[in-house]
Every structure is written in structure tokens, then in C-alpha cells.
Automatic annotation (TrEMBL):
Organism field: Halorubrum alkaliphilum
Lineage summary: Archaea, Methanobacteriati, Methanobacteriota, Stenosarchaea group, Halobacteria
Record InterPro entries: LexA/Signal_pep-like_sf (IPR036286), Peptidase_S26 (IPR019533), Peptidase_S26B (IPR001733)
Subcellular location as annotated: Membrane
Domain of life: Archaea
Key words of the record: Hydrolase, Membrane, Transmembrane, Transmembrane helix
A cellular component annotation (GO) from this entry: membrane
An annotated GO BP: signal peptide processing
Predominant location category: membrane
One MF annotation (Gene Ontology) recorded for this entry: serine-type endopeptidase activity
The keyword Transferase appears for this protein: no
Protein name, per record: Signal peptidase
Amino acid sequence: MNGSRSGYVGSLLAVLLLVAFAIGTAGAWPPLVAVESDSMAPGVERGDLVVVTATDRSPWGEGVVGSDEDEPPERLGGSGDVVVFTSPNVPDRPILHRAAFAVTAGEDWTERADPDRVDDDCVELRSCPAPHDGYVTYGDANDGYDQSTGISPVVREEWVHAKALGSIPTLGYVRLGIDAAIARFGLVPATVGIVTIVAGASGVVSVILGRVRDGRRIDRNG
């Protein structure tokens, strides 16, 4: 009983330490973002897990680099920074999209836009002229800019939570499952259940590895 309890506590501490390290290093919460749609395909697809950091952390300086700038960085299968931001149009659902270019208040940004991503003139768009300084954004797989399709107004600097570093295929389904468990059962019960599962899985793996080691010792002694 004591051994099981010690293993449970050890697993819980390990999870907490891992989370604390990730937050401290990334400077953003959550440091791992699960992709829920295919709007950034093919570079990032639904179920992928994206690693993000705060915009003022290494390896970047301050600000966001748009895909239209000279020699923009390559992020997640395309040019320009991929950012996590919150739109007032969908405030309960952070968006992971690519920055196209920065705009200033009052600017007719359609003059710099890719004609394949915007069909209307400035006077026909709610976010044009730009109501404030910020960024025009888009999903790689979407036909239009977020500001021409109604997904978001021009994205203010303070709406941007993080930049994307890279992605891990399919691992995001684990995060989506955790989020679903928290939404259904609550944070504390879901956390206890997850830690219990991790502790149990760790115990099973330890037993299997122990038997493998014991088998090798028997073979050598024999």
C-alpha cells in the first residue's frame, strides 16, 4: 500500500514539475496547443500538438513577422509567424493562424493584400480601413483573410498570446481528450483521474521492464 501511494505521489509531482518547467520556459499558458481544425493544413492538421512560446521569449524578439516581409521566417509549412490570438468575435476559442502583415489605424490594407484572399473593396469590409494598429491574419487552408471572412477584426498586438515553434503530429488528440474530460467532470476530478492513469501506466511499465531485466539475469546466470 505504501509503495503504491509513493508511486502515485511521485507521478503527481513529476507531472506538476513538467508543467511548471514548460510554463517557465515557454512563458505562455498553455505551452502546448492542440489543433481543433484543418484551417492550417497541410502544415498543421487537426489533432496535431503545437509548441508555443510568448512573443517576447527566445528565439524571437518583440513583435510579429508577417508572411509578406522580406525573408520572413518559415513556420509550420509556410512563411511568416504563426500566432495564437483571441478574437472578440469568438472570445472563448483561441485561434492559431498565420500573420500576413502589420497595418496601422486608418489604412486601406486591401491595397497590400493577396487578391486571391480578398474579393471585396475596402468600403465593403467591416475591418477596413483598419480600425486600429494590428495584424491581418489567415489560415493557410482558408480562402480568405480572417478580416475579410468575419473570423476576426484586425488583430491587436495585445490579443496575441504566443507564437508557434513547431508541431507534433497527432499528439494533440491527447490534449483534446484531457480538455474534454475537464469540461465534463471538472478540473480536480479530471486531474486526479489522469494522474491515476499515468501512475498505473508507469507501474505496469516498471513491472514489465523489471521482468525483462530479471529474465536477462536468469539467462546470463544459466
